[in-house]
Design a protein that fits this description.
The structure is a single chain. The chain has 211 residues and is α/β, with parallel strands linked by helices. Helix content is 31%, strand content 27%. The strands form 2 sheets. A 6-stranded mixed β-sheet has the order 4-3-2-5-6-7, with helices on both faces. Strands 1-8 form a two-stranded antiparallel sheet. The C terminus is likely disordered. Bound molecules: guanosine-5'-monophosphate and magnesium ion.
Length: 211
C-alpha cells in the first residue's frame, strides 16, 4: 500500500498536533459560560470519512458529549469528484435544544454541509457549528462557513486518515495523494475481488507489483 502513495501531504504527527489544538479550542468554546444556556453538545460525525478524525478529536474533549451519526455519500465508488451529496442514513438521537458540532473530513464543493446543516436545524438543534479536518483551496469551499478548520490544502484528491478511494486507504495514518497507477488499479479492484486470483495478480503486475 505504501508504494501506492504519490506524496505525503500531511504526516501523522502534524495531524495529531493539529487535532489536539482543535480539541482545545472546541473545549474552550463549549465550556460554560461560553456555551449558551449552559448547554451540552452533541457531536455529529459524517460517515464514513470523518470516523478516525472524530475518534481522535473527541478523546481530547473532556466535556459531557453525546454522539450522533450521519451517512452521506458524495464520492461513491471510484469517484475523484463529487457526484452530488445524498443523505443515506442517520442515528442522531433527540437534537431538540442541543448545541451540535458537526464533524466532516473535508470541505470540497460544500454540497455535503449545505445538505446536512439544515437537516440538523430542522430536528431542533439550538445551534450548529461545523468542524472539518481539511478544506480545499476552492471558492465553493471557502463560501461555506466552517467554524473550525484543521488544514487548508490544495485542490487535489487525497486519501488516508479516514478518507478513501473506492473504500481503500482509510487506514493510512498520513494524508496523501495517490499515484496514477494506484488510482487506475483501485478503480477496478472491486470487480477483481470476485475475479479469479490470476486476474488480480495480473492487475498487480501491470501496476508494478504494488498491493
Ligand atoms: P463536498 O460535499 O464538500 O463536495 O465534499 C465533501 C465530501 O466529499 C467529503 O466528506 C468526502 O467524503 C468527499 N471528498 C471531497 N474531497 C475529497 C478528497 O480529496 N478525497 C476523498 N477521499 N474524499 C473527498
Ligand atoms: Mg464524507
Amino acid at each position: 500500500m505504501q508504494s501506492d502513495i504519490d506524496r505525503i501531504l500531511i504526516p501523522q504527527d502534524k495531524i495529531a498536533a493539529r487535532v489536539r489544538e482543535l480539541a482545545r479550542q472546541i473545549t474552550a468554546d463549549h465550556t460554560p459560560p461560553n456555551i449558551p444556556d449552559g448547554g451540552e453538545i452533541t457531536i455529529v460525525q459524517i460517515l464514513t470519512g470523518a470516523f478516525i478524525f472524530c475518534g481522535d478529536l473527541i478523546r481530547h474533549i473532556p466535556l459531557p458529549i453525546q454522539i450522533g451519526l450521519l451517512t452521506v455519500s458524495s464520492y461513491p465508488g471510484a469517484s475523484v469528484r463529487t457526484q452530488g451529496s445524498q443523505l443515506l442514513g442517520e442515528q442522531l438521537g433527540d437534537l431538540r435544544g442541543r448545541h451540535v458540532l458537526l464533524i466532516d473530513d473535508i470541505l470540497d464543493s460544500g454540497g455535503t454541509l449545505k445538505l446536512v446543516v439544515p437537516v440538523l436545524k430542522e430536528k431542533g438543534a439550538a445551534s450548529v457549528r461545523v468542524c472539518v479536518l481539511l478544506r480545499k483551496d476552492r471558492d465553493t469551499a471557502r463560501d461555506v462557513m466552517a467554524d473550525y478548520v484543521g488544514f487548508d490544502i490544495p485542490d487535489e484528491f487525497v486519501v488516508g486518515y479516514g478518507l478513501d478511494y473506492n473504500d481503500y486507504y482509510r487506514n493510512l495514518p498520513d494524508i496523501v495523494t495517490l499515484s496514477p497507477e494506484a488510482v487506475k488499479r483501485r478503480a477496478t479492484s472491486n470487480a477483481a475481488d470476485t475475479a479469479p486470483a490470476a486476474a488480480i495478480a495480473q492487475a498487480a503486475a501491470a501496476a508494478g507489483g504494488a498491493a
